[in-house]
Design a protein that fits this description.
Helix content: 40-55%
Strand content: 5-15%
Distance between the termini: 65 Å
Number of helices: 26
Structural class: alpha/beta
């Protein structure tokens, strides 16, 4: 500015009006800046020379007329914009080159593949210092904390998981999903394998380790615990523990062992390694395996090429991630994956030379060694350890504790409610008293309301049950915000609703779910997890698909519903929310970038992702799922049930398939299943986490039932009818008509039907 002022002749300054003087000063400032910074472009003229002609002696030619000053300023501004654009482009190009170089360097340094091994969090019988084996004990409150902390460790290491594998046991499954929840990667499918079950502890199952050492001797018990080829004594087939394991539905198609040594575990793990895990590593994926102590010892022995005598010294503390990295080339030790080598060595196992450890613990090694030492002392001292110290704890090692009786409670952990079970050796599968009592009460209310509506012969027609379940209340539902493909979490009310839904299905007699289908959104996924947890069916396979994502609300996503009504009017917002063919305004580019992350990488391209959807659009993308994946699951379940009935000579057991999704997706499915009209579907309100049950015949066609309430004809809500209607009324009130001048301004209109003697709703915007 000073340089520009020096070039302004005093006579010109006196002759110009104040406004023109300011413009001239700005023009001179622009010219000076360009003269100092602009590069010479083709033609040899700098930005400054192109902006203005100069008098001899270097003075800038000034017009005595305001119009000429304006033109000069406009020309200077154009030149400035050109220069700024060129500078921005240069910066962007330099930044892009820098990012490309950094990415190339990172890719050059990054390993080809990663494998993360994690033992489950502390279980009830870890705390009790008891041999667990195949008994399906749960995590303690400390174990839940440990699993969440393990997820934070993975996040701090910058790990983006590609696939997850775990066992059929709840302590491992819960640890896996807690880690994914903490990582905010809930949408990753958790694959559950019998091969990853814990080593069967035989006769030691349920016994205290110190007591076993006193009975059989420390050396013998340690040999059973650690040696590669020494199995423990067999457990009797008619013992309570073995009967409970052998009759568990998850093992219907499996042979349940009566004991195992580590070599037997290694043999069953080898098949999964060769067929599933190793190929994923060859493809350059990051694989997470969450399983049990001895199962991991078998994997580590294979990964690190340990001799049987070295395996004795392998200890893996609970919820302590062990990261293996592999290179496609390099000087590292050869890995048991064709074409890959270990990236580097990170120590030895048990301070034994030659027992190289190529995995890196993601916690301080001194803490790992302290935990390993405690694990070795558990046959001498009745102690339990934890890798995460709770705020009220004084240390990581404390006296072992066995629950005196079986019970279950809801515990608030880091602001969220979790079911925590206690299972003494005399008990195996316990129910939550409070939730079960509520579920039985709601079921009784349902039965009372339908007791006069029995249909003779209907039961014999039913071949499959399809249960549709809306997720529990999310934080966006609570705040009355349009959600769409946004990914908010469940509220604590929503978590409670999900657990109650599982308990309702259990007390209604559903003993097994053949398959669960859900979306890629955490509110639906967590609802499925919590419902299965209350049913003791954590091992049920779960499939995720984007086709079950909520309807895309476009630019309404993330906006308060009342604000949308004020901006667009109640009638228009109701058309977008409940109408059949009305699409909301589409996503902006910013919303698309914010919403579409790597969970959608497999689907990118073509018309994906949709930027906005009507219910009609949503229904069309659901059809491939309904007649493809879902139809296949139901047919497979029916075939399996028929085979079981024929093989056992017993009664046909109706299989159940569960779909957990969001309201509009379920409305689209209901419309297709029931053949509803465009005038009927706006009247369907799907309450949070109340099972909507369809009974299907041999052609997988819904069987009509008097239990259904209009506009439904075949589907019915499994719950207390009064509570169901109360939640439906709450949903309807999200877009209340109170802001409208009269009823004509709304699409959904309520009136009193004199003939029926009750209020009815109509849709008047077809």
């Amino acid at each position: 500015l000073v340089l520009a002022a020096r070039q302004l002749p005093a006579s010109s300054a006196r002759q110009l009006p104040a406004s023109c003087l300011v413009l001239e000063m700005l023009s001179l400032l622009t010219v000076t800046a360009l003269a100092l910074s602009s590069p010479v472009r083709p033609g040899g003229r700098t930005g400054a020379r192109a902006a203005a002609a100069r008098r001899p002696g270097g003075a800038v030619l000034l017009s005595e007329e305001a119009g000429d000053a304006d033109a000069a300023l406009a020309a200077a501004e154009r030149e400035l914009q050109i220069a700024l654009a060129e500078a921005a482009a240069a910066r962007e190009a330099a930044s892009a080159r820098k990012e490309t170089a950094a990415r190339a360097a990172a890719e050059e340094e990054a390993p080809h593949a990663r494998l993360v091994l994690v033992r489950h969090g502390q279980s009830e019988w870890n705390l009790a210092n008891r041999f667990t084996g195949w008994v399906d004990v749960d995590l303690t409150e400390q174990g839940i904390l440990e699993a969440r902390e393990a997820g934070r460790l993975l996040a701090a290491a910058g790990l983006e998981i590609d696939e997850v594998h775990t066992s059929l046991m709840r302590r491992a499954i819960r640890s896996a999903v807690l880690m994914l929840s903490t990582l905010n990667q809930c949408w990753l499918p958790v694959r559950k394998h019998l091969e990853l079950n814990e080593q069967h502890a035989g006769l030691l199952t349920g016994e205290n380790k110190v007591s076993c050492a006193q009975k059989w001797g420390v050396d013998q018990v340690m040999a059973w615990r650690r040696n590669f080829e020494d199995p423990p004594p067999e457990i009797a087939a008619d013992s309570a523990i073995q009967r409970a394991i052998a009759t568990d539905r998850r093992y219907d198609a499996a042979r349940v062992p009566s004991r195992e040594c580590l070599s037997a575990v290694s043999r069953r793990v080898a098949g999964l390694w060769e067929g599933t895990i190793a190929p994923a590593l060859q493809e350059g994926r990051t694989v997470l395996v969450v399983t049990h102590g001895n199962t991991l010892r078998a994997l580590v022995a294979y990964l690190d090429g340990l001799a049987p005598e070295d395996v004795y010294h392998v200890d893996l503390p609970t919820a302590t991630p062990l990261l293996y990295e592999f290179d496609a080339d390099g000087a590292g030790a050869e890995a048991p994956v064709a074409g890959l080598r270990h990236a580097r060595e990170h120590g030895v196992w048990g301070e034994r030379e030659g027992a190289a450890r190529h995995g890196r613990f993601l916690v301080d090694e001194s803490r790992v060694r302290a935990a390993q030492q405690a694990m070795r002392q558990q046959v001498l001292q009745d102690i339990a350890y934890s890798m995460v110290t709770a705020p009220t704890e004084d240390g990581e090692i404390k006296t072992a504790f066995t629950a005196p009786e079986a019970r279950q409670r809801l515990s608030m952990i880091e602001g969220e409610g979790y079911t925590v079970r206690q299972t003494p050796p005399a008990y195996f599968f316990q129910e939550s008293e409070r939730l079960e009592e509520q579920a039985r009460s709601d079921l009784e209310e349902f039965r009372l309301s339908t007791r006069l509506l029995k249909v003779p012969g209907q039961k014999k027609r039913v071949r499959c049950a399809l249960v549709l379940l809306r997720h529990g209340q999310s934080s966006f539902n609570h705040d009355k915000i349009f959600t769409g493909w946004a990914d908010p979490d469940l509220t604590n009310r929503g978590r409670e609703e999900a657990r109650l839904a599982g308990k309702m299905l259990k007390v209604a007699g559903v003993e097994r779910i053949a398959m669960v289908h859900t979306s890629l959104l955490k509110r639906a996924i967590k609802t499925a997890w919590l419902a299965l947890d209350e049913m003791d069916l954590q091992w049920t396979p779960v499939q995720n698909t984007w086709r079950l994502n909520e309807r895309n609300y476009g630019e309404l996503q993330g906006r308060v519903k009342a604000d949308c009504v004020k901006a667009h009017g109640l009638k228009q917002v109701q058309r977008w929310r409940r109408g059949f063919s009305d699409r909301p305004p589409p996503w902006s580019d910013a919303t698309l970038v914010e919403t579409i992350d790597r969970r959608y990488d497999l689907y990118r391209g073509g018309d994906f992702p949709p930027r906005s959807e009507s219910l009609e659009d949503c229904q069309q993308r659901l059809r491939p799922f309904l007649y493809g994946e879902l139809g296949e699951s139901m047919r497979a379940a029916v075939d399996a049930a028929l085979a079981d009935a024929e093989a056992g000579g017993g009664e046909y057991e109706v299989p159940t398939v569960l779909v957990v999704a969001s309201e509009n997706v379920l409305r689209g499915l209901v419309m297709e299943i029931e053949g509803m009209t465009q005038e009927q579907i706006p009247l369907v309100d799907v309450p949070y986490a109340v099972p909507l049950v369809y009974q299907l015949d041999s052609a997988l066609t819904p069987v009509a039932t008097p239990w259904a309430e209009p506009p439904l004809r075949a589907g019915w809500y499994l719950g207390d009818p009064t509570k169901v209607r109360a939640v439906q009324a709450e949903i309807q009130a999200d877009l209340a008509v109170e802001d409208a001048d009269d009823e004509e301004e709304a699409c959904l209109v309520e009136s009193f039907d004199d003939e029926r003697g009750e209020s009815v709703r109509e849709w008047r915007c077809s």
